[in-house]
Amino acid sequence: MYKMLRKMLPIMRPVHWLIVAVICIVTCYWLLEIRLEHAFKPLTQLANRDRDPHSEHTAIHHVAPTLDNFNYEEQLVVLYNRVPKTGSTSFVNIAYDLCKLNRYHVLHINVTSNMHVLSLPNQISFVRNVTKWHEMKPALYHGHMAFLDFSKFQIAHKPIYINLVRKPLDRLVSYYYFLRYGDNYRPNLVRKKAGNKITFDECVVQKQPDCDPKNMWMQIPFFCGHAAECWEPGSDWALKQAKRNLVNEYFLVGVTEQMYEFVDILERSLPRIFLGFREHYQNSNKSHLRVTSSKIPPSEATIEAIQRSKIWQMENDLYEFALEQFEFTKKKLMQPDNKHLQQFMYEKIRPK
């Protein structure tokens, strides 16, 4: 074979050498093209993904995490739709004090003119913000707004709702004097009723609008939600809806009179955000913020007059209902001996 090639080489003309050279060049170019195509394929896919927001790769990149890889701790969002004059300022200030240490964000929801109901466009925007604003997670949102049902917006991962309720007459009396004398939180701020020296008792006797029992209609609509009927004072439907939401949609509802117990359960249940709340509540000056500067307790006659109203009876019904649920939650936190926390375990696991 080698000798045969040696004999053929001398008789090959220049044109033959040219053909061989061209064939070699074309073959090398073809092989190089294939290698370059494979090398640039990942870069081409990446460029196409960046240009096309609807591509398959982009969709996979931006979809919400599945249940298998969902990080509950770091995706935690707590929504505190705080009822006015229930001790919410004290609670929220603890959250602000500890947010940097515990690595979470606190965000105040400020609605125009202190309105408690969001417009429909704002409902959608708010739901999307809370759900998709991953840079803020974990987060505690708080504001004076009514309950908003995230499920009707087709949201898979809803926030955890918490709240506090207070005895309705205590809340009304506190708000009445707050508008006149302010509090120790911002003592230099002049309130809109400043200078009005009429006591709550005198207001009730004179049947003035500031002490109208209808002003107690606040906790029911806050738990009821954004439906029009929620804001109709005396609505039986609103009370029933408020109770349903309290049981089914709220992780925990405490009472102002048992703030420490409320903080205690939250820290045990959701330490990712509420770690250290108990100690801070007990040992800092944040446990009794926003104390009304001047508040005269109502007389027995005033109390009896208010308690005869349907509004007080309904608001008190909700308060007692919330208190019952809270006491039940506290009781189930402990074992029957009331000395050790309740525990659970998995057993009889099959197949082995």
SSE layout and pairing:
Blueprint: H1 2-11, H2 14-51, H3 56-62, E1 77-80, H4 88-102, E2 105-108, H5 120-132, E3 139-142, E4 160-165, H6 168-181, H7 200-206, H8 219-224, H9 236-248, E5 250-255, H10 259-269, H11 271-274, H12 277-283, H13 300-307, H14 310-333
Parallel strand pairs: 1-3, 1-4, 2-3, 4-5
What's this entry about, in short?
The chain is α/β, with parallel strands linked by helices. It has helices at residues 2-11, 14-51, 56-62, 88-102, 120-132, 168-181, 200-206, 219-224, 236-248, 259-269, 271-274, 277-283, 300-307, 310-333, and strands spanning 77-80, 105-108, 139-142, 160-165, 250-255. The protein has a single domain (77-333), classed as Rossmann fold, CATH 3.40.50.300.
What does this structure look like?
- Pfam families: Sulfotransfer_2.
- One of its GO terms (cellular component) is Golgi membrane.
- Homotrimer.
- One of its GO terms (molecular function) is heparan sulfate 2-sulfotransferase activity.
- It is found in: Golgi apparatus membrane.
- With 352 residues, this protein is α/β, with parallel strands linked by helices.
- It has a single domain, classed as Rossmann fold (3-Layer(aba) Sandwich).
- Helix content is 50%, strand content 7%.
- The chain is built from 14 helices and five strands.
- The chain has helices at residues 2-11, 14-51, 56-62, 88-102, 120-132, 168-181, 200-206, 219-224, 236-248, 259-269, 271-274, 277-283, 300-307, 310-333, and strands at 77-80, 105-108, 139-142, 160-165, 250-255.
- It has a five-stranded parallel β-sheet, with helices on both faces.
- β2, α5 (120-132) and β3 (139-142) form a beta-alpha-beta unit.
- α7 (200-206) packs across α13, α9 packs parallel to α14 and α10 packs antiparallel against α12.
- The radius of gyration is 34 Å and the shape is elongated.
